[in-house]
């Protein structure tokens, strides 16, 4: 079975996306990363196959 989720080959791409976030996304994630949105947990830069998504 082929591994589709969080492939290590996509790690560098995810890292670059986190480093090069636009200002609006920086503000958004500063609130989301500490569960300040009704206590919900969010995951950032999770890869599914060749795509990178935020959950």
How many β-strand runs? 2
Structural class by SSE content: alpha+beta
Number of domains: 1
Indicate the low-confidence ranges by residue numbers.
none
- Strand fraction band? 5-15%
Task: Describe the 3D structure.
The chain is flat and about 30 Å long. The longest helix has 10 residues, at 23-32. It starts with 10 loop residues before the first helix and ends with a strand. It has one domain (8-53). The mean pLDDT is 81. The chain has 2 helices and 2 strands. It has helices spanning 11-19, 23-32, and strands at 46-48, 51-53. Strand 1 and strand 2 form a beta hairpin. It is an alpha+beta fold and 55 residues long.
Summarize the structure.
The chain has helices at 11-19, 23-32, and strands spanning 46-48, 51-53. With 55 residues, the chain is α+β, with helices and mostly antiparallel strands.
Secondary-structure topology with pairs:
Blueprint: H1 11-19, H2 23-32, E1 46-48, E2 51-53
Antiparallel strand pairs: 1-2
Keywords:
55 residues, two-stranded antiparallel ribbon, 11% strand, alpha+beta, 2 strands
